[in-house]
Amino acid sequence: MIEPVDPADLRLVFAAAAAIVLGGAGYAGLFAWARLKNRRRWLVGAYVCYAALAAAVLLLARTAHLDGAWQGVVVLMLVGYLLAPHGIWHLCAASHRLERGSRAPPGD
Amino acid sequence: MRTGIIDSANLNGGQQLAVKYFSVAVVLFLAQMLFGLLAAIQFIRPDFLYNVLDFSVNRMVHINAMVVWMLYGFVGAVYWLLEEESGTRIVGLGLGNLAFWVLTAAVAVVVVVYLLVQTGPGNDLTRWFVNEGREYLEAPRWADLGIVAVLGVFFYNVAATFSKGRWSGIAGVLTLDLVALAGLYGAGMFYLTNITADQYWWWWVIHLWVEATWEVLVGCIMAWGLMHVLGVRRRIVETWLYIEVALMFGSGILGLGHHYFWIGTPDYWFSIGGFFSALEPIPLVAMVVHSVYDAGVHKFKNGNHPALAWIIAHTFGNFLGAGVWGFMHTLPQINLYTHGTQWTASHGHLAFFGAYATINIAFFYIAVQTWRGNIWLGGGLAGGGWKWKWALALLNFGVIGMTVALLIAGYEQSFIERAVEGSTWGGYFAAQMHPWFQQAMAWRLVFGVVTLAGVLLLVWDLLTIGVGEMRRAPQLATEAG
User: Fold this and answer.
1) Where are the transmembrane segments (chain B) (predicted)?
2) Residues ≥6 apart with Cβ < 8 Å to B270
3) How far, in Å, CA of B413 to CA of B421, rounded?
4) If 0-12 CB within 10 Å is exposed, 13-18 middle and 19+ buried, where does residue B468 land?
5) Residue pair A37/B296 in contact by the 8 Å Cβ criterion
6) What is the number of structural domains in chain A?
7) Are B365 and B424 part of one and the same domain?
8) Percent of chain B topping pLDDT 90
């Protein structure tokens, strides 16, 4: 059975859950932009977003009592959000390579 | 081809049928707004129209009008692209027209019954002729059967047209998705006396329509729209369509479990539902990566700025409404407090608008452009295109405002009714009477009026945009093929 959130932590939980997805989008967007423009500065920004995401995941895990098997979900979420933009980027590059006459995509 | 004026001779058979669907969709969109506003007023003044048009009826018509206008928009969009995508004339056009009139007449009768009859004795007569009593799927049984029959005709027309012409990746995904769309509706037609079993199957329609088949249908429509508006190459949109379908179905199907938390299903649904719900934002994050890529690789050269703007609104609305707002309350540890509060309504408003209304509106502009003779709707429109820009701004501002207001109301309900008062009736009324809740609902009404202003401006713009325009838009779809 699950242990619900402490009412005093409700606001933190909502904020953490939202920050996870927004952090994920920020990381994905900045990562894609950095690779597209070949700018390392943006890549640093992307990983700052990921760090914020990771902090939000840990906060959510603590306040929402994600214990036991739920910790597996936490680890999968962290690994998934870290790797997904890399995988999606390669899929982007591969699909657009067809359009660009087999030229290497930017940042690849 | 005549330009600058509405002329159905500019359209093929499927597109002429699509325009009928789009027209009814716009009328239902207005009905959704009207009944939503009435319900919003009744949150603040519960005696408003009491025993004339009760809150329960206004809310039901508001939600059902939304579901049906989305479906009209989707069906219209598929008929719109069918002949161009298949490369042949539509099969069963006469049957399609008949199905359109039957469906429209049925929708009109059902709405009139909702408004005038409203309730029945709660037996088979009520279920067959008044209201089936399943939230969001209130249509009486005869109308249920009619909807499945009309969707069957729609499926036949689509599959037969592609079979006669050419198949493509979009065609294949679309046809298979329509099987699921029509088939899943049957899951909401069982009559079961056990409320848990009834809710179990009911969720199959609600969740799997919205978070699986509708998302895939929108993916197909979006893929074709990107080729048509931006000239994106077919191989790219089809590759992405496959990826997104895999991610959407991979997370969406078992994400269904987050609806099972509180209906008496076994505990393992907590883990399954929670885990796959956490994965559901992934395809939406993937769309963000892809849109950033496309923004860099493609220049935004196009001849239909309103359609492109609404496609962009769709990308962000889908991510924020379905992704962020959805994930904030799908873990059972949180959902225990938020289930069935205004938090759900907040998520629903932004998700349905962002994921579905926006793409339908984009197709309305695509349709108007061709209907007026493939006219130029890019930069340099008469009046600077102020009407479509203001409609876009007011609609998005209004819906986001309603979303935030409902979020505040939902937070207050979660905190007071659920967490502090422990889900008692006393807690329910304490939350409803709380100033935070009432102020939030007042703001929801204000932003509802803003949204209505946006819809009225949108309708005005759709009726007038491109009047007298003689410049022609580039034929990007042909080049993309």
Assistant:
1) 21-41, 61-82, 94-117, 142-162, 169-192, 204-227, 239-262, 268-295, 307-328, 348-368, 388-411, 441-463
2) A2, B257, B261, B332
3) 10
4) exposed
5) yes
6) 1
7) yes
8) 57
Hey, of A1, A49, A77, A95, which one would you mutate to test binding to chain B, going by the most B CBs within 10 A of its CB? A95
**Residue B14 belongs to a domain:** yes
3-state secondary structure of B375: strand
- Residue B174 CA to residue B81 CA, distance in Å, equals 11
Q: How far is A22 from chain B (nearest CA, A)?
A: 7
In this structure, is the dihedral angle defined by the CA atoms of residues B55, B58, B64 and B66, taken in order, positive or negative?
Answer: negative
B476 vs B34 pLDDT, higher one: B34
The DSSP code for B90 is P
Dump pLDDT digits (tens) for B257-290.
999 998 888 888 888 888 888 888 877 777 666 7
Beta strands in B127-275 (DSSP E): none
pLDDT tens for each residue of B407-424: 999 999 999 999 889 889
> Do B249 and B393 sit in the same domain of this protein?
no
Residues B238, A104 contacting (CB under 8 angstroms): no
- What is the structure's pLDDT at A103? 44
Question: Cα(A69)–Cα(A86) distance, rounded to whole angstroms?
Answer: 27
> Considering the domain boundaries, does residue B188 fall inside one?
yes
User: How far does A17 lie from chain B, in Å, by closest CA?
Assistant: 5
Can you state the percent helix, strand and coil of chain B, rounding each to 5? Answer: 80, 0, 20
Tokens at B296, concatenated: 């860099």
Give the closest residue to B68 by CA, choosing from B37, B31, B13, B96: B31
Nearest-10 Cα torsion for B376, B378, B380, B384: 120
B276 plus B354 within the same structural domain: no
Domain boundary among B144, B166, B188: B166
pTM score, whole prediction: 0.91
Cα B28 versus chain centre, distance:
12
Same-domain status, B4 and B38: yes
Nearest to B239 among A84, A85, A95 (CB): A95
Strand partners, B472: B375
On whether residue B481 sits in a domain, the answer given is no
Are B90 and B82 in contact, with CB atoms under 8 Å apart? yes
CATH number of the domain bearing residue B369:
1.20.210.10
Q: Are B413 and B336 within 8 A, CB to CB?
A: no
Residues of B with CB under 8 A from a CB of A: 233, 235-236, 239-240, 243, 267, 270-271, 274-275, 278-279, 281-282, 285-286, 288-290, 292-293, 296-297, 319, 323-324, 327-329, 331-334, 336-337, 411, 414-415, 419-420
- Total beta-carbon pairs less than 8 A apart between chain A and chain B: 125
**Domain check: are B19 and B75 in the same one?**
yes
Under 8 Å between Cβ of B182 and B71: no
A79 touches chain B (CB under 8 A): no
Residue B133 burial (CB < 10 Å; 0-12/13-18/19+)? Answer: middle
Q: Helix B13-44 crosses helix B358-371 at what angle (to 10 degrees)?
A: 140
Q: CB distance from A43 to chain B under 8 Å?
A: no
**Domain end point (choices B247, B266, B295):** B295
Q: Does the beta-carbon distance from B337 to A65 stay under 8 Å?
A: no
Q: Where are the alpha helices (DSSP H) in B45-123?
A: 55-86, 93-116
Touching check for A62 and chain B: CB below 8 Å?
no
Neighbouring C-beta atoms of residue A63, cutoff 10 Å = 22
